[in-house]
Amino acid sequence: MDSKIEIKVTNPKNGDKVVHSVRPGHATSPSPSSQPSQSSDGRRRRQGQGYGHGEGEGQRNRGREGQHAGRLIDFMPFKKWVPWMIPGFVLVNIFLFMITMYINNCPKNSKKCVGSFLGRFSFQPFKENPLLGPSSSTLEKMGALEVSKVVKSRQAWRMISCIWLHAGVFHILANMLSLLFIGIRLEQEFGFVRIGMLYLIAGFGGSILSSLFIQTGISVGASGALFGFLGSMLSELITNWTIYSNKFAALLTLVLVIVINLAMGILPHVDNFAHIGGFISGFLLGFVFLIRPQFGYVSQKKVPPGYIAPSRKPKHKTYQYVLWVCSLILLIAGFAIGLVLLLRGVNLNEHCSWCHYMSCIPTPLWSCKNRQVYCQSTEFGKSLNLTCISNGKSEIYPLTEENTSQVQQLCSKLCG
Predict the structure, then answer these.
(1) What CA–CA distance (Å, rounded) separates 273 from 359?
(2) How many other β-carbons are positioned within 10 Å of the β-carbon of residue 352?
(3) 35, 37, 43, 44 alpha-carbon torsion, rounded to 10°
(4) 102-106, 127-131, 328-332: which has the highest mean pLDDT?
(5) pTM of the model as a whole
(6) Which residues are part of the catalytic machinery?
(7) Which positions ≥6 away from 176 have C-beta within 8 Å?
(8) Where in this chain does the record put each Peptidase S54 rhomboid domain (predicted)?
(9) DSSP codes joined into one string, 258-304
(10) pLDDT at 1
């Protein structure tokens, strides 16, 4: 009995659907719909879209399409993954923010809290944290990026833990919406393993560059990892160039989104060095993790047993291999050099007089200088007397272990 399996292929270049008729022991050869075929009686007959195996088989194939409809195999060029990791990341970030607010316990440490009806989940005063969040000392306890602790105390784990923490409600809301919008699409296309590694490594790269330029204060947020996603999308478009139809429109749109987001990083109190470091890391990682087989490559796993596949093309093009190797070398070298400089306590601002403008550009509306606060402290029995040097204000606090560990926070309130 003559049996065959029809494989419906979607060409990602133009979206046209083509039906391949595959029979045992026969290779397929294309016959476009506009190509006339010669019948046995010498008459020219136009075949429908498909691949024929002999004279007049186009008609028989069309007649059997209904009979073999249940045996069609839909061949998808790329596997679609069910996204679960990115929503999981969002839940983890929200959960850690709730824990941070619980530990912060504003009513116990501050006289005035925003949203006091929330109890210990209430927020620090606006003067201290305008993002509706915890204090700097609480974030530092939770694992915020603080260069002095990374260099002197060798707490390198802060370079990863900081990307799971957020400074306030506005901060986490903006980052989590961006993570869902960008990350779910990437996880659907490339799976949770590659996207999860990209998220962590790009976030780590953002922490490295941030630590080399911003060495005062603390830094938290997932924005470095998010910019890594944007960078990987750009490199994915470049390395998989041949499978996209509207290439230049997609490239222009993506570049415009990246430029706008990086431009927002020049505002004060935004760590644009983490954005840039994450973007560069993600751009290089995209060439390594997000490479796709070229169009026309057929995996033997997709071919049913006993059937001969069409002539195969190489899985990847030469330029894809070149970009893969070069990106991996640059990534490893950049991370190694950055870590060596960081652990030696190098401040790159001393070697680049203009680099600070990449993170903040001063205007008449704002200043880019970090306002340092200094206080003089004196202990009287069970009391702690703090005096702000800049404004002369003085206040006495009950001397407890918590107050002695939060002198900088109390000083910021006094000088605010």
Answers:
(1) 6
(2) 13
(3) -10
(4) 328-332
(5) 0.71
(6) 223, 275
(7) 90, 93, 94
(8) 154-290
(9) HHHHHHHTTSTT--HHHHHHHHHHHHHHHHHHS--PPTT---GGGSP
(10) 47
